[in-house]
């Protein structure tokens, strides 16, 4: 089934969500696509509970709270969120609209597109070691297996952040686990670190400081070579390697849509936030223009002006006036507060 | 005493207040001047308790609440507010700074100026009737007298809004009051209207529908001519006239500072929000640039980019980097959350 819409927003971070609001005030209904399984984007993925102090009139908030507030604000517009899927193709149509498809097969025909993709879709950062590729998915993993799937097996967990330590703790219940991190200090919550140190002290978790510099295979992946800070090499036999090196943003297919890019950013006009392709706008951290600051509050402004520019495209017959939410009865109806 | 400062913000509305915050993050200390006796500007003056729905991540707020939140957010920077005074003169100095004076005699020497003056300073709207000027202050007033000052006298209250009706109610306790409004319907809160109607019914308040079209004086102001909707003229003898026609914004001396203006708005660059005079920036409803929308949230963005442009002027030796309030330890110190 193809969904025919006026506006597609790529990215459900704070700016993408506020884009729904500004389009809604102009009576443009939008759908939203995001690669992550939840709204909030980078904010919720990278710092859900850390305070943010520079959202105007919110002296202190968090990524999670900011997202919840924005979801509440856009609720009157009931914009469908298509989560856990990336936009893979954008094709201009002869009627001036765009064919858009996502990685899970959702298909849209849309009049306008708002790219609010931040620094790109987040994907697990990969271990860069030549010759490892054939083991991806069978012995080299980026997410931990179902509980018990590796029971009794030898597992190396690579990394020192919360995700790595939590995986090591969980796997140590059923598997022989070696935690490998490039330095002795971890970058994780205190209680998690303490639990890991306790397991190490009890001999139920091995810990090696060093980097993976080679491996043995015959033909399955059989052992890793770890080069330690004193430049000796240790060999660790294993059945599975779990790589927990964090998330890395990737622009993905966006870079192939033929838009004007400069250092991985989309050039836009500060009057309309339109890209070089009519009908495609870019707002938030993904865009650039003279004076650009990568701040959420600037993205809110950009989404507002982009919505007005889109209204001129979608409703070419009528001049869309700026109305105020405090006084406009029409806006009160749209917001459900009439 | 002359106050030497880095930045002077003219206007304590939401955008002027957030200007304090963005300058503070860049370690630029600011003072604020406003003509009104309280912070919050137009928002608090015109719609203190009406809901505002389009401040990002505040699904519903009011002018008063928004102001309180912003005051809380800028509290770490302890910016002095000089209220109840208008900036009257701005003079460039030979050292590149500006001499600034206010209507109450406060004097500043400042490196930069941020005009966040909205639609201008608010002043009571005057009755336009030739020959009335000589009675201003003695018999024609824009604010009500001390309670009892007009006791036993004949007072005409002109207007139909909350301020007019409340003044009529209060004055009717001691004076002979005639309320004059151009139409029979009032524009005021229900309970206030009901109280006025009750006084009229009881014969303790006269009400005339019409407009003041002339007057008699000999030599004091002795009577008003009121032309009613059926085109007859009524003569009302009086001692005092209280004009309650609302507030009207006026640009005031700003229009004489030699800045590039277009239809009472300051032309700015959307990269820096600088005016035609280096060192003077304009943010919020007072400025214009391609795509401009008069929205508070856009003013927040403008104040942010203007602050960065000012930092480049104030700290020419060092490139001022963009830091994030979530991660920067320096910003945590400045915000008092280290």
Structural overview:
The structure is a homodimer of 338-residue chains. Chain A is α/β, with parallel strands linked by helices and 338 residues long. Chain A folds into 2 domains: 2-123 and 248-335, FAD/NAD(P)-binding domain (3-Layer(bba) Sandwich); 126-245, FAD/NAD(P)-binding domain, CATH 3.50.50. Chain A has 7 helices and 22 strands. In chain A, the strands form 6 sheets. In chain A, strands 1, 2, 5, 6, 7, 8 and 21 form a 7-stranded mixed beta sheet that branches. A 5-stranded parallel beta sheet of chain A has the order 10-17-11-12-13, covered by helices on one side. In chain A, α5 (190-201) links the parallel β12 (176-181) and β13. Chain A is elongated and about 70 Å long. The mean pLDDT of chain A is 92. At the A-B interface, α1, β3, α3 and α6 of A face α1, β3, α3 and α6 of B.
Features:
five-stranded parallel sheet, seven-stranded mixed sheet, alpha/beta, FAD/NAD(P)-binding domain, 2 domains, elongated, about 350 residues, homodimer, 7 helices, about 25% helix, about 30% strand
User: In oligomeric terms, what are we looking at?
Assistant: homodimer
Shape category of chain A: elongated
Helix content of chain A: 10-25%
CATH topology of the largest domain in chain A: FAD/NAD(P)-binding domain
Number of strands of chain A: 22
Give a concise summary.
Chain A is α/β, with parallel strands linked by helices and 338 residues long. Helix content of chain A is 23%, strand content 29%. Chain A folds into two domains: 2-123 and 248-335, FAD/NAD(P)-binding domain; 126-245, FAD/NAD(P)-binding domain.
